[in-house]
TrEMBL record:
UniProt keyword annotations, A-Z: Hydrolase, Metal-binding, Zinc
A Pfam family annotated for this UniProt entry: HAGH_C
Gene3D superfamilies (UniProt xref): Ribonuclease Z/Hydroxyacylglutathione hydrolase-like
InterPro entries linked to this entry: Clx_II_MBL (IPR035680), HAGH_C (IPR032282), Hydroxyacylglutathione_Hdrlase (IPR017782), Metallo-B-lactamas (IPR001279), RibonucZ/Hydroxyglut_hydro (IPR036866)
Keyword presence, Metal-binding: yes
Pathway linked to the protein: Secondary metabolite metabolism; methylglyoxal degradation; (R)-lactate from methylglyoxal: step 2/2
Source species of the chain: Psophocarpus tetragonolobus
Annotated PANTHER family: BETA LACTAMASE DOMAIN, TENZING NORGAY, ISOFORM C
Protein name: hydroxyacylglutathione hydrolase
Family indicated by similarity: Belongs to the metallo-beta-lactamase superfamily. Glyoxalase II family.
GO MF annotation terms: hydroxyacylglutathione hydrolase activity; metal ion binding
Enzyme class label: hydrolase
Length: 258
């Protein structure tokens, strides 16, 4: 399994996923279809599938166009998220196969939108798995609570995503790592892992390179939204539970300026 970044808009990514034995591929959130097809052609990817994480325009607006450009392509999306161009509605736990070796598990991760889906991808050769988290889990951050609650985001982050294998690669929808890590340091100024990752992310940014993917393990070490179960963070936020701390942390991030 190979995964390729396709930079889109100002700070977004679509992702191409390739089953190397069959050359069949999928694209996650093809917001700029022409760019996606150019990348697919350059990497020899025969597109069969769109994996739509949620309905927001900066993720889903290219679905109808890519259906025109690639006749017969299937568009998977959350059953309650009203995805543009959706042909295959998926629920939590639904499975889709790609090519000969790739298995895709749909995970309902609501809050940013009610029907947001993350896609957990494994291959038969047991290489490092991946999860495409859209706007639920970012590097060192999480999505805004547009359509849901702190309770839902806690379930999405801690119960669904944090329990994936620690080595799982995290591919999120936007390039927000530097800003998110700067905010993370305001919550845990003495966290060496955050300090180190911020320096690395700034170097990546200056070199014009992506900071994605991360891993579930890295997020558990550096992402304050994945660390609200820690008593020290709850105490700093003046909270007595992880859900309360998550709610307060999101409020702080929404108001925070560098």
């Amino acid at each position: 399994m190979k995964i390729y970044h396709v930079p889109c808009l100002q700070d977004s990514y679509s992702y191409l996923m390739l089953d190397e034995s069959t050359k069949e591929g999928a694209v996650v959130d093809p917001v700029e279809p022409e760019k996606v097809l150019q990348a697919a052609n350059s990497h020899g990817v025969n597109l069969k599938l769109v994996l739509a994480t949620h309905h927001h325009w900066d993720h889903a607006r290219g679905n109808e166009k890519i259906k025109q450009l690639v006749p017969g392509i299937r568009v998977c999306g959350g059953s309650i998220d009203n995805i543009m161009g959706c042909t295959d509605k998926v629920e939590n736990g639904d499975k889709v196969s790609l090519g000969a070796d790739i298995n895709i598990l749909s995970l309902h991760t609501p809050c940013h939108t009610k029907g947001h889906i993350s896609y957990y991808v494994t291959s038969k050769d047991e290489e490092q798995p991946a999860v495409f988290t859209g706007d639920t889990l970012f590097i060192a951050g999480c999505g805004k609570f547009f359509e849901g609650t702190a309770e839902q985001m806690y379930q999405s982050l801690y119960v669904t995503l944090a329990t994936l294998p620690k080595r799982t690669r995290v591919y999120c929808g936007h390039e927000y790592a530097v800003r998110n890590l700067k905010f993370a340091l305001t919550i845990e100024p003495h966290n060496l892992r955050i300090q180190q990752k911020l320096t690395w992310a700034q170097n990546q940014q200056q070199a014009g390179q992506p900071t994605i993917p991360s891993t579930i393990e890295e997020e558990m070490e550096t992402n304050p939204f994945m660390r609200v179960a820690l008593p020290a963070i709850q105490e700093k936020l003046g909270c007595k539970s992880p859900v309360e701390a998550l709610r307060e942390l999101r409020k702080l991030k929404d108001k925070w300026k560098e």
